């Protein structure tokens, strides 16, 4: 689906996309930002990695946690086996630290008052400017994290993306990637120009290690355990909106319409 026309946001949007692994959260986030140029992404994962790379005080704390996690993985891997050194950054990072990183980013963009703190008794007063609109990616994942986020900054839309399990499994089976760039292809709807080759480099495409049904079902089970209470939390706050479709192209127009109704 080509996103051509753009729309102007008239009030600040602070949104979260929630969906099972493989549902297309990344695709919808990209399309939203193309459709609504004032919208940007705030990724907790990117903030963690940048903090480590830039050796900030928070970054040094994250690095110590990440190093400890990698050592534990190495010790549990057994002799002669390579440890999972590239584990997900953030899985052991305390919520307080992630909240501080998010708040620091929002303050750097002047989207919340500079004196805002995670220890404040009430949420920060966010900017009402349309340019202060963002999609928060990677956090929260649980209802407890959502409660902590509520105390930091008010979110005003949570989108639950729903696609049938059999459709997602088909997508995963048909998905191929160019490892060096991260470009993703799908033999069902986004084929490379030449079978098994990256469009830009001509290099071979590969399968992700976790692109199999067993791994996905394990991830889905974990997702359902945490997402049900998370969605219930936002439903009670009156900011949850659900959208269902068999493809990203089917979901995007519905998402654009709802977004325009609320923020344009």
Written overview of the protein:
The chain is an alpha/beta fold. 42% of the residues lie in helices and 13% in strands. The chain has helices at 25-35, 44-53, 57-76, 95-108, 143-150, 165-173, 213-236, 248-263, and strands spanning 14-19, 39-43, 133-137, 157-162, 175-178, 183-186, 240-244. It has a 5-stranded parallel sheet, sandwiched between helices. Helix 2 (44-53) packs across helix 3, helix 2 (44-53) crosses helix 4 (95-108) and helix 5 (143-150) crosses helix 7 (213-236). The chain is globular, with a radius of gyration of 20 Å. Residues 72-91 have low confidence and may be disordered.
Q: What's the helix and strand layout?
A:
Blueprint (H helix, E strand, L loop, with lengths): L13 E6 L5 H11 L3 E5 H10 L3 H20 L18 H14 L24 E5 L5 H8 L6 E6 L2 H9 L1 E4 L4 E4 L26 H24 L3 E5 L3 H16 L1
Parallel strand pairs: 1-3, 1-4, 2-3, 4-7
Antiparallel strand pairs: 5-6
Helix pairs in contact: 1-8, 2-3, 2-4, 5-7
């Amino acid at each position: 689906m080509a996103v051509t026309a753009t729309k102007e946001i008239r009030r600040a949007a602070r949104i979260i996309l929630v969906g099972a692994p493989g549902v297309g959260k990344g695709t919808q986030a990209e399309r939203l930002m193309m459709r609504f140029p004032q919208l940007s992404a705030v990724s907790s994962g990117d903030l963690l990695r940048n903090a480590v790379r830039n050796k900030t005080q928070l970054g040094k704390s994250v690095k110590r946690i990440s190093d400890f996690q990698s050592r534990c993985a190495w010790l549990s891997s057994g002799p002669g086996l390579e440890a999972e050194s590239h584990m997900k950054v953030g899985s052991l990072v305390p919520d307080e630290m992630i909240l501080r990183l998010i708040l620091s980013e929002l303050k750097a963009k002047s989207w919340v008052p500079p004196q805002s703190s995670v220890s404040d008794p009430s949420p920060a007063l966010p900017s009402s400017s349309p340019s202060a609109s963002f999609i928060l990616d990677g956090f929260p994942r649980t209802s407890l994290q959502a409660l902590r986020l509520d105390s930091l900054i008010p979110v005003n839309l949570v989108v639950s993306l729903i696609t049938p399990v059999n459709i997602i499994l088909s997508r995963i089976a048909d998905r191929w990637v160019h490892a060096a760039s991260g470009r993703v292809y799908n033999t069902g709807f986004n084929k490379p120009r030449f079978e098994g080759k990256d469009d830009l480099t001509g290099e071979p495409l590969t399968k992700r290690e976790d692109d199999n049904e067993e791994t996905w079902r394990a991830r889905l089970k974990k997702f359902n355990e945490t997402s049900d209470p998370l969605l219930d939390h936002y439903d009670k706050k009156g900011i949850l909106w659900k959208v269902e479709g068999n493809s990203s192209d089917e979901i995007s127009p519905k998402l654009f319409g709802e977004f325009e109704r609320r923020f344009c």
